Amino acid sequence: LAWFAGDFATAARHEEEALSIAREVGDKHVMAYAGLTLGTARIGQGESEAAHSLFAESLGVFRELGDVWGEALVLFTQGSAAYYRGDLATARTQLEESVQRFQAQEDVLYASMALSALQGLVSTKGDQEQTRSLYQQSLPLMQQARNPGRIGLFQINMGDLYQQYGEEQMALASYREGLRLWQEMRPAVEQQLGIVRGLAGLAEIAASQ
User: Fold this and answer.
1) How far apart are CA 192 and CA 119, in angstroms?
2) What does the DSSP 8-state code read for residue 18?
């Protein structure tokens, strides 16, 4: 809860305790997950080196246990962290590896999320063709996962990209589909933010015309 509230100091303190207990009792699965969560808290605190060490330790434990899904989750987290610090080559490698592992585990939701992260990375390089290709790969997976909230946000993100590339009709279609999905869901803060973003995108296109 502290992590989701943005209170990374409290989250880190709890995860440190969980990691310490897991090491004492020798529960390697809990060690790996606690280390991964502590690493994400360290990222939130701006302690990237500490996070890197924790991620590496968690990845090693998951591999030792033969836990492919856990390994994929660490690679996805590492790739996302590398992307935000500007190391795009490392981010791409780790995200691609996470996609392969999630797909091997038939986890369509996380595979689609990793593909979406890759799509964001590729789009920053201005590679429109590959961005479209990744979009075409990830959307069917999201639809299989039956998570309308993520599909809606994904469509709104695509609207932003299409608008960036000057493809207003595609942007309009993506914004409208994203809004439709968000509005069908029960109101919540995150959903309302998604609706605001979608409406802002539509308004910007309207203003330009």
Assistant:
1) 24
2) H
For residues 27 and 39, the answer to whether their CB atoms sit within 8 Å is: no
What does the alpha-carbon distance between residue 177 and residue 169 come to, in Å, rounded to a whole number?
Answer: 12
Mean pLDDT of the chain: 77
pTM for this entry: 0.67
Spacing of C-alpha 134 from chain mean position: 14
Q: Which of 51, 89, 52, 94 is nearest to 76 (CA)?
A: 94
Does residue 49 surpass a pLDDT of 70?
A: yes
CA geometry: angle 61, 102, 17, nearest 5 deg: 35
CB 10 within 8 A of CB 2: yes
Measured CA to CA, the distance from residue 57 to residue 47 in angstroms comes to 16
Q: Which position has the token pair 């590398």?
A: 82
User: What letter would DSSP give residue 145?
Assistant: H
**Residues written for the chain:** 209
**Nearest one of 147, 135, 153 to 195, comparing CA atoms:** 153
Helix H, strand E, coil C: the string for 108-135 is HHHHHHHHHHHHHHHHHCCCHHHHHHHH
- Number of C-alpha atoms within 13 angstroms, CB side, residue 56? 6
pLDDT per residue as tens digits for the range 10-28: 888 888 888 899 899 999 9
